[in-house]
Specification:
The structure is a single chain. The protein has ten helices and no strands. By secondary structure, the protein is an all-alpha fold. The chain has a single domain, classed as Glycerol uptake facilitator protein, CATH 1.20.1080.10. About 5% of the residues have low confidence.
Length: 244
Amino acid sequence: MSPFMAEFIGTFLLILLGEGVVANVLLKDTKGNNSGLMVIATAWGLAVFVGVIVAGPISGAHLNPAVTIGLAIAGKFAWASVLPYIIAQFAGAFFGAVTVWVFYYDHFQRTTESGSILAVFSTGPAIKNYGLNLLSEIIATFVLIFTIFYISGAQITPSKTPIGLGSVGAIPVALLVWVIGLALGGTTGYAINPARDLAPRLAHFILPIKNKGNSDWAYSWVPVVGPVIGAALAAMLYLVFNPA
């Protein structure tokens, strides 16, 4: 398996499981309906674990353009590989979202609340305030990337034991995403990953989903720009504390 394919499959699994839990909680007549934020945040953390297990040995399991860009800024990942990784991540996220729609098709058909349908695919603010929403995504992503640097020693590269992320080594990243969701997810739904939001939002726009409403493109830049800024700040601060 190539690093490109590993990023594609890893991100596909991340979105399939992460957006799958949102569908289970929000869509009508599911077994997990209304089970709450704890269920969603826990499953997203475990979804990261699954994606890392699969992709880690081959690509380093970035699964997130913010991770890829942050590592490149820190000089720990080749800029020539950034675009291929991001393309793979966006493609994996798109097909993961489409698969969630197929999996929960009957429940999408029964759900009449357009906001709940959109929330399966993409994030949205609890209170729309673009400045503070952007700041929320910057801070949450900063915590993600800055902490990953110290979990990994900033060596997320393809190898048999990338950044120590074997089946046990993936646990710290899963716990990190879990706590970010519980602590910092209340304002915007903690996208912290441009591919996780923008590609599934595109799937929402394209798919023939009953009662889906609009895709809220006016907000779509926040979960893209915020994570990129947060990743850049995390990388620069890491370099201040750990100069080359």
